[in-house]
Write a structure and sequence with these properties.
Blueprint (H helix, E strand, L loop, with lengths): L2 H33 L7 E7 L6 H11 L5 E6 L5 H11 L3 E5 L6 H9 L6 E5 L7 H10 L7 E8 L6 H18 L13 E4 H7 L9 H11 L6 E9 L5 H24 L4 H13 L1 H12 L4 H25 L5 H23 L16
Parallel strand pairs: 1-2, 1-4, 2-3, 5-7
Antiparallel strand pairs: 4-6, 5-6
Length: 374
Amino acid sequence: MSPILWGVLVGVLAGAALALLGEAKNRWTLRRLAARAGQPGRLSIVIASRNEEAVIENTIRTLAAQAPPETEIVVVDGSTDATPQILARLRQELPALKVLPDPHRTGKPAALNHALKHVTGGVVLFLDADARMDRAALTFYPRLLAHPQTPAVFADFAAYNAHKTWVIRAQEHFFSFARCFVFSGLLWRPVFMTCGLFVRRDLLERVGEFDPKTLVDDFDLGIRLARARVRVPFVRGPRCLIQYAPTLRDLFHQFLRWYTGGIREMRDEIRKGHLSYALLMAGLALVIYFPQTALLVDGLRGQWVLVPLALPGFLAFLWAASSVSSLLDQGKPTLSLLWAFPFLYLWMQLTVAVAFFRSFRGSHPWYKVRRERG
């Protein structure tokens, strides 16, 4: 067998093995935390709302119907559409709902800070305005936080978009990979999103407020939790249902915000002397741009080694890791296994490059991803 084929074979086996290891870690985390669950504290659900008339009513009604008794729902709203009228009507019907006008109207982080000044529950759940959680999820996750060594958990999630476009299929593939390699904490400390994050209120008070200027409130909170030596485990329990970006334009702007904000946060941490973020940025850049790096290195040396030998195995590793992750998550093979990885890899190269240069510019408006009505 030629060296190239050997490299591809080793890459496929290594990628599949690592995906299986990530999924095994997720399942072990679920069993470990569930085994020590206790009596849940009172739950406060926090939502920052901005022009959410398409989804806000169903979200609030679903949460009010499914949440445990005495749960409060705190919505900070800075809308210019019909959302305030919808919330005012719901407030008359639902005693658990607390609606607060957004006094800052500068973005989600400031709105969350304002909401946290008014919550009364011992456990806080952050949700986006389109999110849905059933009774099983709203009772299961707070029970995990009853253990003193589990002050926060990040709930599993899935898309509920009615129209499963190819863009949404691609995101399903992307998040399947993220579950095994990013959220699990297999290769780095666990990463989370604030939608579906359960956290004890006393911990939030200890680590401080969100940075009002950040583009990535979850990354900002993750840094502050890391300083407090708190790891947030990803739990493959009942899923939080959310809407994925429906169009390529929405996906581009969503990825651009994530990566622009993430690069800025890491750069700020490096300036403060936290050099582990420099290693993280270098490692991510090498993974994302390894094909270009291999071409550059071989070109400078005048000797083709990395491109014919290392690059095929590297791409085979990533394809196998993403494909096996998707199979483990979705339970069946789909045509997306053929095209999702090359699309997402090129898409990430594009959006990260744009985000890197964009991160040196001034403030950026928060792009509003479109919602399906429902």
